[in-house]
Amino acid sequence: MKDKIFTFKVYFEEKVYRVIEIPGEKSLYDLAEAIVKAFGFNFDHAFGFYNNIENLYESDEVYELFVDMGQSEPGKKGVKDEDVCDVFELHKQMIFLFDYGDDWMFLVECKAISDRVSKVRYPKVAQKVGKAPEQYPE
């Protein structure tokens, strides 16, 4: 699955989302960077992926940048060594939490897994719907 392209629909709100295509061989760190940039944010804060959509603090599958920074906790994994293809499967959803101070939350859903298209640069924002919020509103 490393050679496949994973297509994610990343929701900020129901009518504000981005569709992102990224190779399965890329890390969760790379996916996080693609999400943040797709919404026009600066990639300047810690983040994590959580599998409990209703209450991320009760997730049993957790991937956090903190682990890669040496702040390991039992049951949590880092984002730099975990590949997209090893974490996501078709229709799987996770919460992406960016900036633990401002708590920007996005619902990330794997919508498709397909073959790579030659001469296309990935990661790629395939669709933008709705106006993204300001990261640092006045």
Report what the structure shows.
With 138 residues, the protein is mainly β. It has a single domain, classed as Structural Genomics Hypothetical 15.5 Kd Protein In mrcA-pckA Intergenic Region, Chain A (Roll). It contains three helices and eight strands, in the order E-E-H-E-E-H-E-H-E-E-E. It has an eight-stranded mixed β-sheet with strand order 5-4-3-6-7-1-2-8. Helix 2 links the parallel strand 4 and strand 5. The protein is globular and about 40 Å long. The relative contact order is 0.29. The mean pLDDT is 96.
Would you summarize the structure shown here?
The chain is 14% helix and 37% strand. The chain has helices spanning 28-38, 65-68, 84-87; strands at 4-13, 16-23, 47-50, 62-64, 76-77, 93-98, 104-115, 124-129.
Query: What name is given to the CATH topology?
Result: Structural Genomics Hypothetical 15.5 Kd Protein In mrcA-pckA Intergenic Region, Chain A
Q: What number is the mean pLDDT?
A: 96
- Write down the domain tally: 1
Radius of gyration: 14 Å
Q: Which CATH class is shown?
A: Alpha Beta
Which CATH-level-2 architecture? Roll
Number of helices: 3
Adjacency order of strands in the biggest sheet = 5-4-3-6-7-1-2-8
Q: How far do the termini sit from each other? A: 43 Å
The helix/strand series, from N terminus to C terminus, equals EEHEEHEHEEE
SS elements, strand count = 8
Provide the CATH superfamily.
MM3350-like
